[in-house]
Design the sequence.
């Protein structure tokens, strides 16, 4: 009897394993996993998060040791200064650090391959470069600091990083009396009972901030409408996720379009303007310095046959006031503006004569915490002939 007990137990266990109830549980587990699979991070999401951390460290010059411990710090005069202190700090494990290093190594390997191509081309000019080296004076100072090459792009990059690292340098109203705040109706009957709060924040380039342009409910609706059009991983992308919303599909979009027309006087209905673009920025999400107007006649934008992007209207949809460094930096004018959560920025991309305004070069700083939602409305030249008149001065 003693030796028969184990056999009976094993037999009972096999009956349980092969029972209909066990099979139903396994199928339910598989079905549950299939439903959740779309919301679980994949390898590309993990690599994107690693790239986001690398970007944050690079742009904000974060202290690597502090970043590993979950602290966003910069070394100033030998001391670690917090630029953002999360309520809970998550420490990176050894595997996490290895992954970040592995992703970084892959990027460096691509740069290395590019350099190999350059070396291959230089091989055919060896004599020329040897002659230049002979004619160059010897370098005697061994303490020279390594600096970026003096190119236009890298000079812009330096200013961009400086703007992201420092607080706003926007002049105060008392420093420039031509900057002002007021209650604005634009002569539109729809704004007489409830004028919009307008703040002129820059003259060159001309930039206006409209406070409380959308309500909390409208911002939430626009974000929800955009979700099916962007990635399911709203938190993970290091670059950005984009969706385009049409007025015909979403009533709140039409309401926002009409409000843009009231405050600007511009025709924002397609084809004279593009559909509302909704953008989500995740970990390290950013936008490099760029201009919205096109500079080449071969641009696909001209296939619309509605001219260049004459103006830009950008609405900030994020409700989190503590979302760090969600600014729009104007590179040429060396200024930075922190956008209020339901406000909107408006500026002209083109001069009155139709030439591009280089002072509208702008960028989005990498997001340190949370995520960022922005809605963009690009207005084109055609359709605005009676809204923005030509000047008698061809230089304007």
Sequence:
């Amino acid at each position: 009897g003693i030796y028969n007990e184990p056999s009976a137990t094993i037999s009972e266990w096999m009956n349980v394993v092969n029972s209909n109830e066990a099979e139903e549980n396994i199928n339910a587990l598989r079905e549950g996993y299939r439903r959740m699979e779309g919301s679980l991070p994949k390898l590309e999401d993990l690599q994107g998060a690693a790239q986001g951390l690398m970007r944050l460290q690079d742009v904000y010059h974060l202290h690597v040791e502090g970043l590993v411990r979950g602290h966003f710090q910069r070394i100033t005069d030998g001391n670690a200064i917090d630029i953002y202190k999360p309520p809970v700090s998550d420490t990176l494990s050894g595997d996490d650090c290895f992954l970040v290093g592995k992703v970084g190594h892959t990027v460096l390997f691509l740069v290395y391959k590019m350099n190999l191509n350059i070396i291959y081309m230089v091989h055919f000019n060896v004599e020329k470069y040897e002659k230049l080296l002979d004619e160059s004076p010897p370098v005697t100072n061994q303490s020279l600091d390594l600096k970026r090459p003096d190119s236009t792009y890298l000079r812009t990059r330096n200013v961009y990083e400086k703007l992201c690292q420092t607080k706003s340098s926007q002049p105060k109203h008392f420093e420039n009396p031509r900057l002002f705040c007021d209650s604005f109706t634009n002569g539109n009957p729809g704004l007489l009972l409830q004028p919009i709060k307008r703040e002129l924040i820059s003259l060159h380039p001309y930039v206006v901030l409209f406070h409380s342009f959308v309500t909390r409910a409208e911002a939430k609706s626009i974000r929800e409408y955009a979700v099916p059009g962007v990635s399911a991983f709203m938190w993970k992308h290091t670059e950005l996720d984009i969706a385009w919303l049409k007025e015909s599909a979403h009533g709140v979009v039409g309401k926002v379009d009409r409000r843009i027309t009231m405050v600007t006087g511009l025709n924002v209905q397609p084809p004279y303007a593009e559909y509302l673009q909704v953008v989500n920025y995740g970990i390290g999400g950013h936008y490099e310095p760029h201009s919205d107007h096109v500079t080449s006649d071969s641009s696909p934008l001209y296939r619309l046959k509605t001219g260049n992007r004459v103006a830009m209207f950008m609405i900030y949809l994020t409700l989190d006031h503590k979302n760090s460094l969600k600014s729009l930096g104007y590179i040429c004018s060396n200024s930075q503006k922190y956008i209020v959560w339901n406000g909107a920025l408006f500026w002209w991309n083109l001069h009155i004569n139709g030439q591009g305004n280089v002072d509208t070069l702008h960028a989005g700083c990498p997001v340190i915490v949370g995520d960022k939602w922005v809605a963009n409305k690009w207005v084109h030249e055609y359709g605005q002939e009676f809204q923005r008149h030509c000047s008698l001065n061809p230089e304007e």
Observations:
- The chain has two domains: 10-135, 182-380.
- Residues 10-135 form one domain.
- The first helix runs from residue 4 to 17.
